[in-house]
Please model this.
Amino acid sequence: MPYPVTLIPGDGIGPEVSSAARRAVDATGVKIEWDTVELNSDTILKTGQSLPQHVIDSLERTRVGLKGPVTTPIGGGFASVNVALRKRLDLFANVRPVRSLPGVVTRFQDVKIDMVIFRENTEDLYSGLEHEVVRDVVTSLKVITRVASIRIAEYAFGFASMVGRKKVTAIHKANIMKLADGLFLRCCREVAAQHPDIEYKELIVDNASMQLVMRPETFDVLLLPNLYGDIVSDLAAGLVGGLGVVPGANMGENHAVFEAVHGSAPDIAGKGIANPTAMMLSSVMMLLHLKEPAAADRLRNAVEKVYAERTRLTPDVGGTASTSEFTDAVIAAMK
Ligand code: NAD
Model:
């Protein structure tokens, strides 16, 4: 039986990188029944909804999605489609493995970076609760709850103990946001106490940002509320070659949507030079979720082989290949 998967190409570079990832997944030999659904800024403007019903219907049926980036139309009162999707399906954990790839020239290439970011995905300043108190005075509500904080902490520690990772670092600003980040930290400590075999550390987000640049190799599992998780993910991506290479997964109790960390990259959209690595590595995470570890290994090894050879990389990681030349090379490396 093929696995049903919702494919959301998105917009900007989304259609280019998601069709590359689809080709690579199909080349692993795993049978997928792709249900391709439109979700982009045009559909949003046309339907007047951030999250049209046909997208939800498909994901309710398949329970697994592979998603390209979607541009949120600015102005017009549209909620971010990504935030809406994560909330609607309760995709509470955003998981982003950040690893050095062979052959990528970065400022940190002599350092082995291998960390996994766990970002809470449903609340914090992404609650979308903003209010103009009086003209030119605006408040934005930061919502932190015990339920969501415990849930992401348990997910991060559960992962660490399952795969044998040694250290979890909770990142916060509880010295300033004593109540909100204080609650997040208390929940992290509570869960940490149930995992005495895993080292637990706390870092204030500004210090954490510096430590990530100075000593990235000392980080293992990172545990963050939503906004810090968003910012730190891009910072961490910069350590290993940029947004083109960092994958991600949005995990809920009943659904999982896999997508790259990057956005729709309007500056390079349509030029055929977008790097599909992040989408391919997100597909590796999807194959693992589908319990196809051999196919996941095949795809990951093929990507790493093409990186190690260095001859068919896209411009963002120092090469001259197009999206499709890189994809052809990955598919050839699987044979
Ligand atoms: P971005 O991630 O789209 O791009 C940042 C920079 O990284 C750009 O210079 C871009 O060219 C480069 N880049 C990103 N992905 C790349 C790839 N695969 N290959 C090569 N280069 C790549 O960030 P942005 O410009 O701030 O956001 C653009 C739009 O994307 C915004 O509308 C934003 O709302 C949306 N967005 C969507 C998602 C999502 O759907 N999950 C995530 C982030 C941003």
